[in-house]
Specification:
The protein is 15% helix and 30% strand. The protein contains 2 helices and 11 strands, in the order αβββαββββββββ. It is globular and about 40 Å long. Bound molecules: zinc ion (2 copies).
Length: 168
């Protein structure tokens, strides 16, 4: 009898864990909150000029998700649509209208993807960044870890094949 009860208990706990988000986060003022159901497909630093300008910093710390794995109370998020002068596609910055925190970025090139910002996680130490893109446009004083994978441009070529990392 006791064994049966224990089994039931462990099944219930598993179901509860399944529904728990893997990561949670939000904007600076707390109006925007989100839940992520799994770890990101990739976590990266992006050193392109768009990310430098849009974040006001040396590089963006981004996490690539499938849209279906992001749950966002984005009813009142504002969107700024930037059209790249290089490739002509749009990059959409979605931010909190109250505090201005960029919560997520979507792109015309990867419509199925949603880029979440590592710094908005409740526990940003839960994710490690060991891949960097657009190092060609990066600040010269930024250095990379020995084991990091660093790309001069995007990690994917324009035809979608994997790019070759730089030796840094
Ligand atoms: Zn806010
Ligand atoms: Zn970028």
């Amino acid at each position: 009898m006791l064994e049966v009860n224990q089994t039931k208990c462990s099944v219930a706990r598993k179901a509860w864990r399944k529904n728990m988000p893997k990561h949670t986060g939000g904007c600076l003022c707390g109006k925007v909150r989100f839940e992520l159901s799994n770890d990101p497909e990739v976590a990266y630093g992006c050193h392109c000029r768009f990310c430098q300008k849009a974040t006001g910093t040396a590089f963006r710390s981004g996490m690539r998700y499938k849209k279906g794995n992001v749950s966002l109370n984005h009813a009142d998020l504002k969107t700024y649509i930037y059209t790249s002068p290089e490739h002509g596609r749009s990059l959409n910055v979605h931010f909190c209208p109250s505090c201005g925190t960029t919560v997520t970025v979507t792109t015309e090139r990867f419509p199925e993807a949603q880029v979440m910002m590592l710094g908005t996680l409740d526990d940003p130490s839960s994710i490690t960044v060991d891949m960097h893109m657009f190092a060609d446009e990066g600040m010269k004083w930024v250095s990379f870890g020995e084991d990091d994978t660093v790309y001069g441009k995007h990690r994917l070529n324009s035809d979608g094949t994997p790019a070759t990392p730089l030796n840094v």
